[in-house]
Amino acid sequence: MNEQTLDWIRLQKALSVEAERGYIDIMGNQYRFSEFICLSLGKPPKNISTGDKIQWHDVAQKFANYSNLSSSQRKQLVIGTRNFLHKQKVLTETPSTPPNPKTPRTAALNSSQAKTYFKQEISLDMPLSKVIDIGRRSNYLERLGLYTVRDLLFYYPRDHLDYARQVQITHLEAGETVTVIGTVKSCKCFSSPKNKNLTIFELVLTDPTGRLKLNRFLMGARFGNPGSQARYRNQYPVGSIVAASGLVKQNKYGITLDKPEIEVLDGAGASIESIKIGRVLPVYALTEGVPADTVRKSVVAALPAAKYLADPLPRELRNQYGLVKLKNAIACIHYPENWEELTHARRRLVFDEFFYLQLGFLQRRQELKQKQKGASFAPEGKIIESFNNILPFTLTNAQQRVVNEIFGDLGKADTPMNRLVQGDVGSGKTIVAVYAILAAIQSGYQAAFMAPTEVLAEQHYRKLVEWFNLLHLPVELLTGSTKTAKRRDIHSQLANGELPLLIGTHALIQDPVQFHKLGLAVIDEQHRFGVQQRARLLGKGKSPHVLTMTATPIPRTLALTLHGDLDVSQIDELPPGRQPIKTMMKKGKADRKKVYDLIRREIAQGRQAYIIFPLVEESEKLDLKAATEEHKRLSESIFPEFQIALLHGRMSSAEKDAALNSFRDNKCQIIVSTTVIEVGVDVPNATVMVIEHADRFGLSQLHQLRGRVGRGSSSSFCFLMSSSKNVEARQRLAVLEESQDGFFISEADMRFRGPGAVLGTRQSGLPDFALASLVEDQEVLTLAREAAEKIIAADKMLDNSPSLKQELEIRYRRLMGGDILN
Ligand code: ADP
Ligand code: MG
């Protein structure tokens, strides 16, 4: 695939991500969305006319002004740009194609008719507008990024509903998905007396066994006018026979169907015509304003083209892993006859998603191996020997094992290390990194240690500088707030090789930073950095060894597969003497008083406490206010006898430092903070962690916060304050009450919120899978990995399987589109 094509995909993906996120001008690794689009559109393809080029620049200009646009203006611009780009792409690819003749309107869109109508014409690359005359609808489809028949076929439903079961009214049972056939007794459509914006539609049906009332609740002004309400009513005349499908639910008015799909039949006994009633029905993820039926009907029209899909997977491989053919899988993922078909289709397509990703990873790994030569560092030497002597504790077995794994990598000159260390909060990852750093220095190389926040970088510096002083080794800290003179000093010491270790934030990857001989890059909390940022750090040396660390550990098979090109080590043991942290959910005044009393008792024994407030992006100001006010309330009315520090993201680095230092030195007993404290702050004397509005945090984040206490040898407490009555929220928090195991918690978190939210999809370079679930589909994932390994072992560059190679290029690029904004 050439550069040109890649750009189109990136651009379209950026636009669709922005639409998904609600037009917030999302931040990529390097650029904001609007900047990225503006820059990209500033460079139109060469083979277009001057007129078109001017248009490109016009659109780019509009994005330059994106930040001043209202949300709806942004939306219009994004949609308009997607269409524009699509048309431009078609132009550049087929410059001589005449405009498409208008196809006649198709009366019905059920699958048999669609088949006959398009018998000769339909093909995979045909534009959708040619296949199905949907008037304004093709616009809707473009909004979803769907332009060709192939696009639509690969637009998998996110769910299916089983409407295949016809049930009589008297036999309805809550929780089942069914179809009911009945006669309309009455039909009303009116505005809610309480909420003008809400229109209520009410249909009463009977069958020989009973009576059923169905409601639909329609939000929005467009349903509110009497004309549209009358039209709605008239669709269901009294006496007509209808089929209604949906999930049976029991509410206080009796039994009903939740969000029913209703279709009027020609008469009793008439076959159910609708494409959705009485069968397994696909449900598609939609963008606002795209009617669900539009997508369903269009899919039905496009499905006949599925038979042209060639299968890139060799037959032996399909047989070996029990996979159905691609064309069958595609047909059945949309409209399966039954659940079994659906299961087979899904399994095949999930396999594909994992398989191509693995294939891509493995190939990249091959390429790296061929290209790079690392430096080899010996673990034996004076520096490490002296360090062993000054270390105030012995390594845990897990730490020792991981250090050995790292030394093994560092000793090999032929390939640089690329290792991820996973370990729960407090498992002692830093010290493991220090061993690697010292090995590099011992062999005459420099090391860089990058952390995601100033607070964390400073803490690492503080700890390491003690040790480094004892070892008579210089070390410096470089962050956004390092003074210019100091900064220059650091730059020159780095460049001439005097400085063996630089700790810092993103400041490390900026341009003036040049190493004399960078041999090792350590990246803490790696999931907080983008692919590109990591790459830039590595670019500061010649194939340096890389050690990344994460405190959001995930199951090993998953980590191996996800980070397909990394080796993974686990520190699965905590340093000795740690006590479990007593964790409890709390709500209401009485509970709060008990929590405050406990804080008093702990402080009386010389301990300290954290009180954390969430900082949610949308209401950053409000939350800051909450933290600031709470600080005031606590200092004045609750704990006037104690010193209470305040820490939040809007403070200058110096202020933050001062607050943290006073807490670290026990000059203040309580620190009230927003989540800037989250990452790795280490004050072993603190024993109480109070998290306000705990339900607003993800489990992994809560676990990290909790990990700020329990670092010393005395027993610690974590209180999850939440007044939420939401059952799921309380279930989530209960996981923390029950478990202290980071692996278990991250897996639970993935189940609740999805892996993307937990691992930071776009940040970690983790792909968006259309179907596959990293939690549910681990077995298929393992198979796909195995299959990919076999293929690569036999045919490294896929020279003998051109169709696989081609498919890989398309799929891998698309999947890894996660880092598009770079
Ligand atoms: P994390 O894995 O969360 O980054 P740190 O590296 O910050 O953990 O270590 C947490 C604390 O445990 C630090 O105070 C560190 O000095 C201490 N520590 C690390 N390893 C050991 C050990 N083997 N024995 C005792 N304490 C240790
Ligand atoms: Mg850490």
UniProtKB/TrEMBL annotation:
<keyword id="KW-0067">ATP-binding</keyword>
<dbReference type="InterPro" id="IPR047112">
    <property type="entry name" value="RecG/Mfd"/>
</dbReference>
<dbReference type="GO" id="GO:0005524">
    <property type="term" value="F:ATP binding"/>
</dbReference>
<keyword id="KW-0233">DNA recombination</keyword>
<feature type="domain" description="Helicase ATP-binding">
    <location>
        <begin position="410"/>
        <end position="571"/>
    </location>
</feature>
<comment type="similarity">
    <text>Belongs to the helicase family. RecG subfamily.</text>
</comment>
<dbReference type="Pfam" id="PF00271">
    <property type="entry name" value="Helicase_C"/>
</dbReference>
<dbReference type="Pfam" id="PF00270">
    <property type="entry name" value="DEAD"/>
</dbReference>
<dbReference type="GO" id="GO:0006281">
    <property type="term" value="P:DNA repair"/>
</dbReference>
<dbReference type="InterPro" id="IPR033454">
    <property type="entry name" value="RecG_wedge"/>
</dbReference>
<protein>
    <recommendedName>
        <fullName>ATP-dependent DNA helicase RecG</fullName>
        <ecNumber>5.6.2.4</ecNumber>
    </recommendedName>
</protein>
<keyword id="KW-0378">Hydrolase</keyword>
<dbReference type="InterPro" id="IPR014001">
    <property type="entry name" value="Helicase_ATP-bd"/>
</dbReference>
<keyword id="KW-0413">Isomerase</keyword>
<dbReference type="Pfam" id="PF17191">
    <property type="entry name" value="RecG_wedge"/>
</dbReference>
<dbReference type="InterPro" id="IPR001650">
    <property type="entry name" value="Helicase_C-like"/>
</dbReference>
<dbReference type="GO" id="GO:0003677">
    <property type="term" value="F:DNA binding"/>
</dbReference>
<keyword id="KW-0238">DNA-binding</keyword>
<dbReference type="GO" id="GO:0043138">
    <property type="term" value="F:3'-5' DNA helicase activity"/>
</dbReference>
<dbReference type="InterPro" id="IPR004609">
    <property type="entry name" value="ATP-dep_DNA_helicase_RecG"/>
</dbReference>
<keyword id="KW-0547">Nucleotide-binding</keyword>
<comment type="function">
    <text>Plays a critical role in recombination and DNA repair. Helps process Holliday junction intermediates to mature products by catalyzing branch migration. Has replication fork regression activity, unwinds stalled or blocked replication forks to make a HJ that can be resolved. Has a DNA unwinding activity characteristic of a DNA helicase with 3'-5' polarity.</text>
</comment>
<dbReference type="InterPro" id="IPR011545">
    <property type="entry name" value="DEAD/DEAH_box_helicase_dom"/>
</dbReference>
<feature type="domain" description="Helicase C-terminal">
    <location>
        <begin position="591"/>
        <end position="751"/>
    </location>
</feature>
<dbReference type="Pfam" id="PF19833">
    <property type="entry name" value="RecG_dom3_C"/>
</dbReference>
<dbReference type="GO" id="GO:0006310">
    <property type="term" value="P:DNA recombination"/>
</dbReference>
<dbReference type="InterPro" id="IPR045562">
    <property type="entry name" value="RecG_dom3_C"/>
</dbReference>
<keyword id="KW-0234">DNA repair</keyword>
<keyword id="KW-0347">Helicase</keyword>
<keyword id="KW-0227">DNA damage</keyword>
<dbReference type="InterPro" id="IPR027417">
    <property type="entry name" value="P-loop_NTPase"/>
</dbReference>
<dbReference type="InterPro" id="IPR012340">
    <property type="entry name" value="NA-bd_OB-fold"/>
</dbReference>
<dbReference type="GO" id="GO:0016787">
    <property type="term" value="F:hydrolase activity"/>
</dbReference>
